[in-house]
Amino acid sequence: MSHSDDERLVALEARLARDDPRFAEALRAGRPAPPREYRRTGAWWLLLTAMAVLITGVVLPDGLLIATGLVLAGIAVQLLDPHRARPERRLPPYF
User: Fold this and answer.
1) DSSP annotation of 36
2) Contact status, residue 76 vs residue 46, Cβ threshold 8 Å
3) 0.85 exceeded by the pTM?
4) Calpha distance 17→58 (Å, rounded)
5) Neighbouring residues of 70: CB distance < 8 A, sequence distance ≥ 6
6) Residue 7, Cα to own-chain centre: how many angstroms?
7) How far apart are CA 39 and CA 37, in angstroms?
8) pLDDT of 1-52, one tens digit each?
9) Are 35 and 20 in contact (CB under 8 A)?
10) Which residues contact 37 (CB under 8 A, 6 or more apart)?
């Protein structure tokens, strides 16, 4: 490999380690873990909780529980979207 290729690989490794340290460490150990984009366990739990709250609100006619279940379901579905934009990491401005 040429020197510029080595520099690109080192830069790529550093960026990967900064963006998703768990994934980078798993690659180093030889046991790859799914990248952060595919780890959605928390979103599935939130969706399950939202459905439980929503069903409870329908069974016990309670508008507040129904509204809470719908809002939580909307948040969970947004978290499950594979194409959602990742927020940029910005440094705080210095005044």
Assistant:
1) G
2) yes
3) no
4) 46
5) 50, 54
6) 29
7) 6
8) 567 778 888 888 888 888 878 778 877 887 776 666 666 788 889 999 999 9
9) yes
10) 82
